[in-house]
Amino acid sequence: MSRIRKKEGGKETARGTGKPTAREATTKDGGVPGREPDAGAKALRIIPIGGMGEIGKNMFALEYEDEILLIDGGLAFPDANMLGVDILVPRIDWVVENAARVKGWVLTHGHEDHIGGLPYMLKLLPKIPMYGAKLTLGLLRGKFEEFRLKESDTDLREISTDERIKVSKYFTVDFFRMTHSIPDNSGLIVHTPIGRVVHSGDFKLDYHPADGKTSHLYKLAQAGQEGVLALISDSTNAERPGYTPSERDVMNAVEQIVSRASGRVIVTTFASHVHRLQNFIRVAEKYDRRVVIEGRSMVKNTRIAQELGYLEAKQPLVSTDEMTNLADDKVLFLCTGSQGQPMAALSRLASGTHKKISLQAGDTVILSSNPIPGNEEAVGRVINELYGKGVAVFYPPTYRVHASGHASQEELKLILDLTRPKFFLPWHGEVRHQINHKRLAEQMATPPQKIVVAENGDVLELSRNDLKKVGQIDAGVVLIDAVGKTSEEVTEPIIRDRQTLSSEGVVVIMALAGKSPSVEVISRGVSQNHRELNGEIEKIALESLKRGLREKRTLSDIRDDIFYPVRRHLRKATGRNPLIVPTVIEG
Q: Among 24, 146, 578, 587, which residue carries the largest CB count within 10 Å?
């Protein structure tokens, strides 16, 4: 593969090859470089497996004849009613069934909603060439360690954020850098036999990023001049007018707070937000504060980012175990817990259960993040607990200590104007975000000929003349319950049982079928008069048990004989429908 770099004067060269550059090699119709346009080319199928109508779980499949190209493989976080569920990942049954046709897997960046599902998916698939930038693969390798996966079982291939790769006969991908809240973030120009498909990746147009590396908009402009058949673009902030603030604005706001703080400063944000972490380290250094890292994912991600050269600090970052003899006004903590997770560092600090640190009056806490939908209540609870501790608390939108990593309306319109796609697919957002992005596109001077608001699992057929839905695959969700260092899938019946337990309670009936039959009942969460209720249930169950023994019924039949009359009685006596667990054993 040829590596592309931009020299002074805007010219591009393919390093050490003498071959045409990415720009020179592109065919006029946007097809696969090096191939003549195919007048009889078949349609390309675009299949969103996750990320449509939701925030998270991002994953696409592009299918042309006997080849499939995959893009990303992320996770999402559960709703409040998904009791005991830790994460959600896309259901990839269709990918598993067609694994032999998958020629490559490209990763746009290292955020959890784009790579967090991969450890679960890769266990189900053979080796597939997987292309990602240095930090993206570094974070992915960190996840492999966590999940005890061997890198030798995968085929990771490092690329730059400005590189062209020929994945297969029909798919060639141009990466182009886009600013976001993490380094090494890319959009994609996918060259196919029928034309170019541009995938924006997550982005905002930050002209003052922490690393000074701005978006490669010239590649988008060039693609637009040569013809973009379809654009898939980030819709997260399609409802927000104007421009998304820069990371520099967040740094300035945090610096003002730190400059006035007389005690300890505790800052929480996403552990993968490397740009922001770098800015916070610079603020700490400016005010002579030592940076202390607290929280498992924060420790892991800062270590990886430092080892790969994406995070710089004048003094070593230390853990709470290594923190010794630091005055309150000489320390700044970077910790986990921005989403109110119960076991994360900030939640334990707020509740007073942290083993090493206790908050005190004079401390300053900065929440540099917005709650992910569904986490608002948990974050609000942490903020209230922090106020109760008497500390100074700063959080958005009251204070400008957070900026989204996603483009607002004026930036979205610029991408539409640069690419001028024939067809448009709003992506990465809930339905309201997709529809508002659609409306923006319709208002452009040169609007797309057709816009499709898709759902996960839609099979979209893209030809040179149309984009339409032609089918559906099973693209549901896998619910994951992480238990210690293991994880397992949670099925819908388990969720229903947990919901019943939380709202209706449980009744456990233990029946001994022997010469002296007996019944013991335990109930929880059903009635305040549980002793009286348990006695009534025991009488009903014992009567059913004795009758079943007289009639020489099987133990499973006796269990049913106990279950149904007990359920009827509970409904009549309490109006509830608790989980009933009858067990019959021979004695």
A: 578
- Contact (Cβ atoms closer than 8 angstroms) between residue 472 and residue 459: yes
Query: Is 474 among the annotated ligand-binding positions?
Result: no
Q: For the structural domain made of 247-394, what CATH number should be given?
A: 3.40.50.10710
| Neighbouring-strand partners of residue 423 | 230, 450
* Residue 234 annotated to the active site: yes
Q: Where are the domains of the chain?
A: 20-242+404-480, 247-394, 491-586
The residue to which tokens 């019943």 are assigned: 500
Residue of 162, 206, 234, 363 with catalytic role: 234
Fold of the domain built from segment(s) 491-586: Ubiquitin-like (UB roll) (3.10.20)
84 annotated as a binding-site residue:
yes
Q: Are 173 and 164 in contact (CB under 8 A)?
A: yes
Q: Flag whether 284 is marked binding.
A: no
Burial of 91 (0-12, 13-18, 19+ CB in 10 A): buried
199 labelled ligand-binding = no
* Cα–Cα dist 237/492, whole Å: 32
**What topology does CATH give the domain 20-242+404-480?**
Metallo-beta-lactamase; Chain A (3.60.15)
Tell me the per-residue pLDDT of 124-179, one tens digit each, with 9 for 90 and over.
999 999 999 999 999 999 999 888 888 898 999 999 998 999 999 999 999 999 99
pTM, entire model: 0.82
Answer yes or no: 211 catalytic: no
DSSP label of 100? G
Catalytic-role residue among 275, 406, 433, 437 = 406
